[in-house]
Amino acid sequence: MDSIKITIDDNELTARKGQTILEIARRNGINIPTLCHDERVKPYGACGICVVEAKGSAKLLRACSTKASDGMVIHTDTDRVKQARKVAMELIMSDHVGDCRGPCTINCPAHTDCQSYVHEIAQGNFQEAVKIIRDRIPLPSCVGRICPHPCEDACRRNLVDEPVSICALKRFASDTDYDSEHSYVPPVAPDTGKKVCVIGAGVSGITVAYFLRQNGHKIDVLDAMPKNGGMFRYGIPNYRLPKDVLEQEINVLRYMGVSFHNNVCVGKDVTLDELRKKYDAVVVAIGAWKDQPLRCKGTDLDGVIGGCEFLEQIGLGKRPEIGKNVAIVGGGNTAMDACRSAVRLGAENVYIIYRRTREEMPAEDDEITEAMEEGVQFKFLYNPVELSGENGKLTTMKVQKMRLGEPDESGRRRPIPLENEYTDIQVDTVIGALGHTLRPEGFEQLEMTDKGTIEAGLHSFRTSLDGVFAVGEATNKGATIAIDAIAQAGQAVDQIDAYLYGGTSFYKEPYYSEKKVSESDLADRPKIPRHPVQKRDRTLAKSDFQEVNYRYTKEDAMAEAKRCLECGCFDYGHCTLIKRANEMPIHPERFAGSQHPSYKEQELVCIERDQGKCILCGLCVRICDEVAKKGILGLVGRGFPTVVKPEFRDPAVIAGCKDCQLCFDACPTGALKLLVPEKEK
Predict the structure, then answer these.
(1) Which residues lie across from 15 on neighbouring strands?
(2) Which CATH number, 3.10.20.740, 3.40.50.150, 3.40.220.10, 3.40.50.300, labels domain 3-77?
(3) Using CA atoms, how far apart are residues 38 and 492, in angstroms rounded to an integer?
(4) Which of 117, 182, 181, 180 is nearest to 143 (CA)?
(5) Mind listing the pLDDT tens digit for each residue in 540-575?
(6) Percentage of residues in the chain with pLDDT exceeding 90?
(7) What mean pLDDT comes out for the span 380-386?
(8) Which residues pair with 304 in a beta bridge?
(9) What superfamily in CATH does domain 195-289+465-500 come from?
């Protein structure tokens, strides 16, 4: 056997004469990317991704089809090679019409695979759904109750009728799994010997603890409060989030081996320096518990309280004395929780004072509607200017009428005071719900932002102290929704994990192919009403703190899940194309223009072909011809109209596809979908 010597990326290799550069590289563990190559068929060189640079050659060579010669010196990672691969990928992706992920997943801050878990629910596989959810969300029953569901805002079902009830389905799957005999507990990797302290048992801290524990690290969670859960326990009332549900979710972390330590206050019971010495890494996830003050006179009167403080007292089992007339200043979800709690505490007149209109309110629309149904009176376009009282006790709120001007930096129209238009409201209690920030005591060593939050790297999550990370509401921009905190904490875990092993992890926003869809594209879809979530009778609901929204029945959940249009690619997890697309920074929009046809066809009976996802690599054609020896497929047309189709329609020949499926296995893009159960392998 003749042998040759070849050098690839400074590695001197011995190879067999007649081998291609790609064959030699692969057999020696050197990665050269490709989309259209399969060792079972002749080289084709269609994709152009496998180009390499050879010393002395003016042009780049396609590694899959170029036979190596003795003495060749090959470089696979030069700037010239990278640029050529980048352009090749951009050209391919500019003609690739399809969704890698459904809009629901892309719009979820945590990138939860909504489509997959909804699909599993539709099939009745509830625990499988929970496994998918828990891959991103450690508290699915809680999040399924309180999330403002940005996934549903992006749901394509909006173009047909109403969005799929993704959030309620999350709750259904998780609650149902907890009710089962063997509820799911995520696996934990073998012990790494690394110890991490998480300060704060709120949603961010729990998320960090959950994923770091899965990676095999020993986790201690410290919290200053008597019980765990942070704002989920002390900021969200029981009627929205029952605390037995929260405890059930936290117990999963206990089963995984996470240790919780309550009534431990950093700065009082232990110092940050002491924790740094004891642990390999420290994560600060202390939340934002300090209310922003009302910006008017008289806030020192008895009867004025912050929204977080008010809800915290209720969470601690207290019943604050609020009197008959209560006003809440603010328009966010904290304001909604406060006003509905005030109703349940027996207040006869509960007002929301908001300086803009309902359209500008940041609170969830469902929360606003339910507050109105419970008798809360909304006074839009009013702003408090003075609080007054007798003998130090609040009695009156003076409010000024407002009008809306031009939009401000937030995009909402700016409220403008109207001169000499004032109204007095008799009040016993005023609750300020204008936002909240952190209490910095015990963490003064950490560098702070000009907003009074902890300065942390946007992608590294590192603070000014080595080995100390910070996540959640206490950092950078401050308070946000729970699913944002979960997403951020999940990203932080990669950075913390890398630090524990002496390295650095670089976050890169994933690239997705996204399809533009209009109402006309979905005009043929039947309109199916969204299955409503059953609610407790409003008269009874406002009399106590019992949960107001019920979970789906099994039948309703499965029916609702079947409304999903399944926009995302079924083969995303195995797609070679998207893997290659994420290996380099690409901008396919540079080559926007004409595209080849993007319809779906089922001429092979058992296989659906999505022409829009096909990149014309020809692999299926060659596999069918050279391996399956059937020659059913061929490239039809020229230029952009070119597609892959069966070259003839003999039913007897096409029927053989059912037991073959080689083209499906070889496709690098998910353009082929089995319409029959995949055969056992």
Answers:
(1) 4
(2) 3.10.20.740
(3) 38
(4) 117
(5) 999 999 999 999 999 999 999 999 999 999 889 899
(6) 85
(7) 97
(8) 430
(9) FAD/NAD(P)-binding domain (3.50.50.60)
